[in-house]
Design brief:
By secondary structure, the protein is α/β, with parallel strands linked by helices. The chain folds into 3 domains: 82 residues, Immunoglobulin-like (Sandwich); 252 residues, SGNH hydrolase (Rossmann fold, 3-Layer(aba) Sandwich); 91 residues, no CATH class. Helices cover 25% and strands 28% of the residues. It is built from 12 helices and 23 strands. Strands 1, 3, 4, 6, 7, 8, 9, 10, 11, 12 and 13 form an 11-stranded mixed beta sheet that branches. It has a 4-stranded antiparallel beta sheet with strand order 14-15-20-19, with no helix packed on it. A 4-stranded antiparallel beta sheet has the order 18-17-21-23. Helix 6 crosses helix 12 and helix 10 runs parallel beside helix 11. The termini are far apart.
């Protein structure tokens, strides 16, 4: 049966349909721009979105009320740059085209991207030390979270799924614990708003977080990536997470990036020595910033193969050769029986120490334990020199442990080690002509060498001999 609608109703429906058509061409923003967001202070920030081809766009921040104008291009995209002043707010950000969007409660402060695998993703709800206390205390209106949803894509995408929320006990409970503790340290020290973007995925190898071009341009990385086997908990193919969870955030202005990953790459530590520096450059290029990149050295754990932990940790330490990077050593706060150590507080604080010292100029804050620098043979002994040992070294316990020494036969034996100022002297009774030293060189080793500032030394070796 055919139904004849009254004229007034037909006219109303046509108006509504016209409204739908108009809204399809109206100005829109990616999810990273929204109420409660944090924009990087004292910077030229990029704001972008979509609209109808030729549409006039005006973007205005209430901090200076200076409109910036552009037109939507023939790809239905637009982009502008705004200059932000020092930290503060709340402000509004107004985007006007055929329609008007007004973002409320916008703060200016420090924005950090947090990424990696499960130890970065791990939240208070997942189980951390003193979780109930930390959750109850997590009322920080000036700290904001943006959680990127798990997604994969074959090509770089334009948007992510997520929204900015204010830090409350309810929102903190499900956000990256390491990211939160880092952000809290920055907020409490700098007294400025902090925005934290968490884009991480448990169990993912680093290859999924680089662009396809970055992988294919390096034959070593491409070959290693091609050998990865599928797993049930997440992607392993190159660029899958990068395309869907990193690329859409570019070129959002950041203060820096945090990285906690490596457990899924312990099978190929030599490859990781190229992989992580490539990732850093890949991200810096995409975000169009040479931002600081601070990462966590993985903790000791009962891995299946020999030397998986120390060799991956070594690859991470080599990444410090990349300018403007830092490494938080956590071999003393891990759990050899649990690949997810529950002490996330000190991990966040150690990352924050790097940022506070290196990025924010707080030179009184200790930020790194001893890192092996060089060795010198002195008869039947070897003297070891370290970076970040200017204030001296100490042992937690009566004697230094987990040192080994080898002669020309390349056979390592347990060694005696003693602290001499800011150096360590190593020897063994039956090694008359020593050529190499190792410390903490096993999957479950927890060294007891520290700086007098209270931070642990990374495991290390002075040789470059291949894996047995």
């Amino acid at each position: 049966m055919r139904i004849r609608l009254p004229f007034q109703l037909t006219f109303l429906l046509l108006l509504l349909m016209g409204g739908v058509v108009s809204s399809a061409g109206a100005v829109t923003l990616p999810a990273i721009f929204g109420n409660h967001m944090v924009l990087q202070q004292n910077s030229q920030v990029t704001v972008w979105g979509w609209g109808k081809t030729g549409e006039d766009i005006t973007v205005t921040g209430s901090w200076d009320n200076k409109p910036v104008k552009t037109k939507v291009n023939n790809q239905a995209q637009w982009q502008v740059q705004l200059q932000t002043p020092a930290a503060g707010g709340p402000h509004t950000l107004t985007v006007q085209g055929y329609n008007t969007l007004v973002l409320q409660d916008v703060l200016l402060g420090e924005v950090w991207l947090c990424s990696g695998q499960s130890n970065m993703e791990w939240s208070a709800a997942s189980g951390i030390d003193n979780a109930e206390k930390h959750v109850a205390e997590a009322t920080y209106p000036s700290i904001r979270f943006f959680q990127v949803a798990h997604r994969t894509a074959n090509t770089p995408q334009l948007d992510v799924q997520g929204q900015w929320v204010v830090c409350t006990p309810q929102t903190m409970k499900h956000f990256s614990a390491v990211g939160y503790f880092f952000g809290r340290e920055i907020y409490q020290n700098q007294k400025v708003p902090v925005g934290l973007i968490n884009s991480s995925w448990g169990g993912t190898p680093a290859e999924v977080w680089l662009s396809a071009n970055a992988i294919s341009a390096n034959p070593v990385l491409a070959q290693a990536a091609a050998q990865r086997k599928e797993v049930e908990w997440g992607p392993v193919q190159p660029a899958k997470a990068y395309n869907a969870m990193i690329a859409p955030l570019m070129p959002f202005r950041l203060a820096g990036a945090l990285w906690y990953q490596g457990e899924s790459n312990t099978d190929a530590p030599d490859v990781y020595a190229q992989l992580l520096p490539t990732l850093i450059q890949n991200w810096r290029s995409g975000f169009q910033q040479e931002f600081p990149f601070y990462f966590v050295q993985i903790a000791p754990y009962k891995y299946g193969g020999p030397e998986e932990h120390p060799r991956l940790a070594e690859a991470q330490q080599k990444t410090l050769r990349v300018p403007n990077t830092g490494m938080a050593v956590i071999n003393d706060i891990g759990n050899i029986d649990d690949i997810h150590p529950r002490n996330k507080l000190d991990v966040g604080k150690r990352l924050a120490a790097w940022a506070l010292h290196q990025t924010y100029g707080q030179k009184n804050i200790p930020f790194s334990g001893p890192l092996y620098q060089r060795m010198k043979t002195e008869g039947n002994k070897i003297r070891l020199f370290f970076d970040h040992a200017d204030q001296g070294l100490t042992a937690k316990g009566k004697d230094l442990t987990l040192f080994e020494i080898a002669g020309e036969d390349r056979k390592f034996v347990p060694a005696t080690a003693r602290i001499d100022g800011n150096t360590v002297v190593v020897s063994a009774k039956n090694v008359k002509k020593p050529v190499a030293v190792r410390m903490g060189w096993s999957n479950t080793a927890v060294p007891n060498l520290y700086s007098k500032t209270g931070l642990p030394a990374s495991s290390f070796r002075t040789d470059d001999w291949p894996r047995p």
